[in-house]
Each structure stands twice: as structure tokens, then as C-alpha cells.
Specification:
The protein is an alpha/beta fold. It has a single domain, classed as HUPs (Rossmann fold). 33% of the residues lie in helices and 21% in strands. It has four helices and four strands. Strands 3-2-1-4 form a four-stranded parallel sheet.
Amino acid sequence: MTDHPIEFAPYGVLYPTDFSNEGSNAFAHALKIALQHRGNLTMLHVDPHHVEDHRWEKFPHVRQTLANWGMLADDAPHSAVAKELGLGIDKIGAEGSIVGSILDYADHHPIRLI
């Protein structure tokens, strides 16, 4: 019998956001969990009507949060998140059904936690 290494997909955390301040605690928890697993954090904003109108600057600021936590320098480049912390970050805008878009994304990507 030959031993074959088992490969696992990165631990994926999906954080759906409506850009409200009420979601900031959920963002912090999602980011911390993704960090603990050296996984991937995907931030997903779904607009039922116009994906072109997404304001990317409204997504939570990962590097700023990590700097506030003392995990990155204030002036760390984007690449430091992956190189220094082993964390992948994706920011995605979608249009359509909110619940349907979230579930569809989770079905087609290695998501372990929403």
C-alpha cells in the first residue's frame, strides 16, 4: 500500500457584507478565524440591481485592521498580508439574489464558514 499525502483546500471564510457599521464585529471575527487557519477571507457584497455601483472603498480595511491589532506595520504593502501572515483576501461584488448569490459562491469555492 502506498501512502499518498492528503491535500486540503485552504480554510475559506466567507464574509457577506452590506457595508453597514453593524457588521464590523462579524468582520473582525471572520478575519481572526481566517488568520488562525492561515486561510482565505472572501468579502462578498451582493446588490440586487447594479454591481457596477459597488464602492470598493466601503469594504472593510483588512490591512488597517491588522495594523490596529499590531500584526502588520501601518505602511505594510498589500502583499504583506499573504507573505507575512499567510492570509488570502478576496473582495467580490455580485448582483442578484442576496441569499442565492451567497449560497452559489459557497457551493463553488472551498468555503468552510459563512
